[in-house]
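Please describe our next protein:
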Amino acid sequence: MIVPILKIALRALARNKARSALTMLGIIIGVGSVIAMVSLGQGAQQQVQEQISNMGANLLIVQAGSFRTLGVRGGAGTSTTLTPADMVAIQREVSGVAAVSPSIATSVPLVFGNQNWTTRAEGVDTTYPAIRLRDASAGQFFTDADVRSAARVAVIGQTVADMLFPGMDPLGQTLRVRNLPFRVVAVLQARGQSQLGQDQDDTVLMPYTTVMKKLLATSYVSSIQVSAVTEDATGPAAQQIADLLRARHNLRDGQEDDFTVRNLTDVAETAAETSRVMTMLLGGIAAVSLLVGGIGIMNIMLVSVTERTREIGIRMAVGARASHVQHQFLIESLILGLMGGLTGILAGAGVSYGLSEFMQWPRLLSPVAMVGSAVFSMLIGVFFGYYPAKKAAALDPIEALRFE
């Protein structure tokens, strides 16, 4: 019985093509808005997650505190409280730690032939690639022997390679760093700009012992980078590191820390939660259009019931039951909702693609959002079509035949 009713419903909608199209417009706009907003919101959320995860694997950063002289405090990282021995203690005594590397940085002028460039030199350990998820694209990272001997070797970023060695292979070349010769042993994988707009390829990595002894003549490091074994282990590891360093630095109860432990996993979770809230907010605003479209369906279906009162009376007079009439109008509203939903999905995908290309925004089309929008648009059609269908089914056949 459903097939004849479906044919009758389709013929009824086809008789008023323009009105049916305008009725679906509200659903099209609503579904298209939801798809576009959710796509752009989830794309931005994924991009933020990728940028933060690119900073390192389950990363903790232990940074030296600030110095205080005659009541004047310097910035974070200016005190001389962290040492390579602290790094060794963290690796040995803190459970849940996978890898540790000290970090000490300074600005240096680089010279090769008639080319020169000033960049940031960072002294790290051989564990740096595992911690920061960044290996060499060419050559080999320096070794433990290079660290022990404070060898003059360098791993350069792609920007440095382009500036100093245009059109040539930098591997094995000797560049000068503050008038000291350094041999290029590797080129880092290109990473581009960070989320803060910094060029991550404009850098030179060296053994931390080399930077400490031959560039800065210091026995301290500015920070210690720690990779926890799992994301869940970052919190307990951070607390253990703080307790260990307080004990090593002889800090009494009530004394403030002379270091800072930053958990980048918390930063990632905060950024992800912010993106999720914004996506839900944008999706919720767009979903209002769906309700407006549903009200439009109910309005048009009520008009249709009034216009087709005599038709309903004739159908009931020749044997159609009230349930048949009700099903016909429900199917009509369901078709309006489904067709509007499918068209809206295509429109939303097109809008999200156009905006992402024009404004360079990330996008991520969600199959869940697309299927959910199609199902929700059908439910909207059924929900708002139920009252007109019930009203049509409740018509008295004799009164309907008399209707002018």
User: Anything to note?
Assistant: The chain is about 55% helix and 20% strand. The longest strand covers residues 97-112. Confidence is low (pLDDT under 50) at residues 69-75. The first helix runs from residue 2 to 15.
